[in-house]
Amino acid sequence: MNGTDAPAWPHCGHLDTGETCRGRSVGSYTACLAHLDSAERAAHLASLTPGTDLDHRGTPFTQGLLDELLAPLRDPGTGRARVGDASFDQARFTGDAELTGVDFGGFCSFASAVFGGGVYVQDVRTGGDLRMGAARVAGDMWLDDSDVDGDAWFYEARIQGALRFHVREVGGTAMFRRMTCGDASFSGARVRGVASFGDAVVEGEASFDGVVFEEGADFTKIRIAGRACFDGAHFHRGSARFDGADIGGDMPFAEAHFASEATFDGAAISGDLSFSGARLEAGVGFRRAVFRRTARIGPLVCPGTVDLSDAVFETPVTLEAAARDVHCRRTRWASTAALRLRYARVDLSDAVLELPVTVVGRPRRFVSPEGEAIDEPGLTDDRVRVTSVQGVDAAHLVLADVDLTGCLFVEAVHLDQLRLEGRCHLSAPPPGPRRIRRRTLAEEHHWRAARHGDGWTPAPPGVAVQEPGVLAPVYRQLRKALEDGRNEPGAADFYYGEMEMRRHDAAAPRGERMLLRLYCALSGYGLRAVRALVWLVLAMTATVLAMMLWGLPRADPDPVSAGTTDGHRITLTTRRPDPAAPQGPYAKRLSAARFEKSLRVVANSVIFRASGQDLTLIGTYVEMTARLVEPALLGLAFLAVRSRVKR
Q1: Can you give the residue ranges of every domain in the chain?
Q2: pLDDT score for 564
Q3: Nearest to residue 56, comparing CAs of 34, 38, 73, 71?
Q4: Can you list the residues of the chain whose pLDDT is less than 50?
Q5: For residue 561, what pLDDT is reported?
Q6: What is the pLDDT, as a whole number, of residue 320?
Q7: Read out DSSP for 135-152?
Q8: Among 413, 533, 538, 644, which one has the highest count of C-beta atoms within 10 angstroms of its own C-beta?
Q9: What is the per-residue pLDDT for 601?
Q10: Are 316 and 337 in contact (CB under 8 A)?
Q11: Bridge-partner residues for 74, per DSSP?
């Protein structure tokens, strides 16, 4: 209502400094309480009894006039004033206004009232609502040791000084939407209904320590210029919503209790968030939040999900959290960050890393500032599992002591610069006589499960199955990352996976795939020493048998000399006969003497030397083949051993 509009109640109409008084007429009088003459005012006040309703809307008040009004309503025995409903809407108070020791049986309304100084309410109880909506206070507003059985309405109130709302209990809703004040303190209050602070502005610091919100609290788009303290606050049943909030300082939640989800979606926070000793029974969301100067978040213990999707970290930050899930989808780190986690499944899909970001699986529980280990109820399986780095530029990513058995790597870039520190686990193939132990990617499990199952892990719902041609480069880049980190044994498994994917790539040339099959069968791509040694032993055994049966002659041929004599001249010719092929039953050829000669030939062939033994034509070709194949198999065995011990 504008100041020039006629009020909806019968009003005084007294001219005061050129303005018409808007105060409500008292009883049968035509003037308001402030403009009654002394006799009329005395007569009116004498008619009041404890429990009387008061209606002085628009009336100008001083502290003295207010005391006069309440004096006849006070119980002589207790000294407390008893009022029914009280309406002071649009009243104007000169200077400070104090209200002490008053019981309102119904509502007490100061909606749109104007206070020229501060408002000090002490030991007051309202049986109905306390209404301060759109009130204007030039100084502080204090409400101490009071109770509101109904709702507390401060909608659009403007308080130039500090607000101290130390009400013991609000029986209904607490509405502070679009309120403005300096500092704000709500310490120790209890709100049984919903508490709403949406779009409120606190020009200084705010304190909500120890406040109990029975039905949750809404701080959507609140703006607090300084620190916002929620130490020991309790959010029962309803959620705690800080969506779009703008906090200029720290937000400590030490020893706080959240029975439902807490959300900070779209919030802008300029300080640290401490959750030391806080108890969260559901998740906490920071979607699209902006952390301007936040250096630390946590330690946060959450049995649900910590959602940092689309959040932006503008300065270096350390996040300490023990949670079931941590979502960092499309999160942007403009500076360095350290994520020290426990239990969590971490999703880094499409995250943007401008400087090094470390994800570390912490083996020990977090500790409080007093050095005590923080309990972690509702959390089991202390492995930190990274589930996806898809879409991430991994050049600045460091993973340490995490489980990568279900991690999706396809679509990540610069995987060759990814750093894997500590013990980073990857899944192994399912047990089987033809399967070797090695570290495999989750995407290979998905492809093999889709192809023939047989114990391989299928792709989760919504995850596309990748083809071998896509997985081979991923293995290659991860192999290089481990090689650059001087982890040759670990890189060997990724090389094996790369070769396996190349062997199964239908787009590769048939000849290349055949060569890879042979390479795999002989030595496991130069990585399986036992396989190469088995083939070497088989080749040597076959060579020994071939030599004993067909390669060695019946007897070593003796040289034969022949010559002629012509006068004083003698001519001699020495000829060595061709070795004669062995004859007789095969059993007789398998003698100890022939075995010893055959073994000597094979042993020399393995080290690529000629034995000097006379051989049949078949034996010569067998030796040539052995000198080609067996040293190669021995070299593959040495290569496999070297790949497992090289540093």
Answers
A1: 442-508, 529-645
A2: 63
A3: 34
A4: 1-3
A5: 57
A6: 94
A7: -EESS-EEEEEEEESS-E
A8: 533
A9: 73
A10: yes
A11: 81
